[in-house]
Specification:
By secondary structure, this protein is mostly beta strands. The protein is built from 1 helix and 14 strands, in the order ββββββββββαββββ. It has one domain. A hairpin with a 2-residue loop joins β6 and β7. The chain is globular.
Amino acid sequence: MEKKLTLSVILFALFGCNGGDSTAITNGTDDNVVEYQSNGLEFTSISSGIDVNIDFYNQLTSVINKSKVDIILDVNNNSIFDDGDVRLKIGNQSLMANVVYGSEWISGDFILEFNDGGNVVSFRHASGFIIGGNNVFSNDLGSVSYYRKTNNSNLVENKLIVRINNSFTTGSSYVSLVNKVKVSLGNISKNTGANVYVSDGIDSFDYLPGMNLFTQGDTSDNNDDFIGSDKFVDLKSIKITKF
């Protein structure tokens, strides 16, 4: 996919360090890490799971507004979203033009979609803006963390970490389905193919590695290869880790 180069530069405010769900860690004089934890099970409380690290070239916006990130994990590595595959959806997934989130990324939607023989089931936190059916709710599905590191006021690292809890729970009527999901999660590795799509929900977006393309292991993306004017959507890299 050919992407046009944008020359527009938009400055975004840094995330604040306030609120009950945020944690700030300072290392040295100006090196700092700011981590935000989502609703549901706290980020640091998950002892076994999968992290999908999405790095960005530029500072993320301080509020979600209409922005979203979609991540397809191609468990069977056949380059399509089909039976047994997982799709993670965070941010504003309402698809409604008149819904604007006015809170940080961690307060938005957190959804794990599982392709069960062509029937896509949505596991999600009971938060965000919930529409449609086929939702299975879980309080310990996973979490989203925003991570930023600076050095002498220069941005060093800037990423979202989408963490899936391998031991998530739901109602008793979904045990069989959850077991299928956990088999797929167990088959995910650092070499699992992935496709990442980020959008401001209006006119700016980026893909990694490209539209309808899937990664093979850790993958980096070119700088300034996004479409639109919102510079924050510019994807830098993806890395999958298990712990």
